[in-house]
Amino acid sequence: MSFDDAKKILAGGDTAATEFFKTKTTDKLTAAFKPVVDKTMAQTGVVQQYHALIGRFDAIPFAKSQTFDIDGYVTNKALDGLFHVVGEQEKLIRTNPAARTTELLRDVFAKK
């Protein structure tokens, strides 16, 4: 993170830090989450049920075959949820002095 990035985050909107980290970390987080999601989806039978459903759909005359990466979709939604929660916490820290639970947070946002 550059000094300019830090200034933009401090002066930015309620979720400026969250958006910065989302941009910078999504690829690495996706790589870390996807194997766990793939394994869990296979263990719970979701993938098998999805493939069975698609098989029935494909058997419908004139139905256009569908391709959909269910594991990728779930991984993306998990990360969306993660960044949503982080963003909500960031909003709270920016707007509520009581949420600034560390000295660093108090120092940084007291100057804003």
Summarize the structure.
76% of the residues lie in helices and 0% in strands.
Blueprint of the fold:
Blueprint: H1 3-11, H2 16-44, H3 46-58, H4 70-95, H5 103-110
Helix pairs in contact: 2-4
The dominant shape is elongated
In total, the number of strands is: 0
Oligomer class: single chain
Average pLDDT reading: 90
Largest sheet: none
Percentage of residues in helical conformation: over 70%
Terminus-to-terminus distance: 19 Å
Proportion of β residues? under 5%
Q: Work out the helix count.
A: 5
Uncertain regions: pLDDT < 50 for 5+ in a row? none
Give the helices and strands as they follow along the chain.
HHHHH
Q: Using only CA atoms, what is the Rg?
A: 21 Å
Structural class: mainly alpha
Task: Outline the structure in words.
The protein is mainly α and 112 residues long. 76% of the residues lie in helices and 0% in strands. α2 (16-44) runs antiparallel to α4. The model has no long low-confidence stretch (mean pLDDT 90).
Keywords summarizing the entry:
112 residues, 5 helices
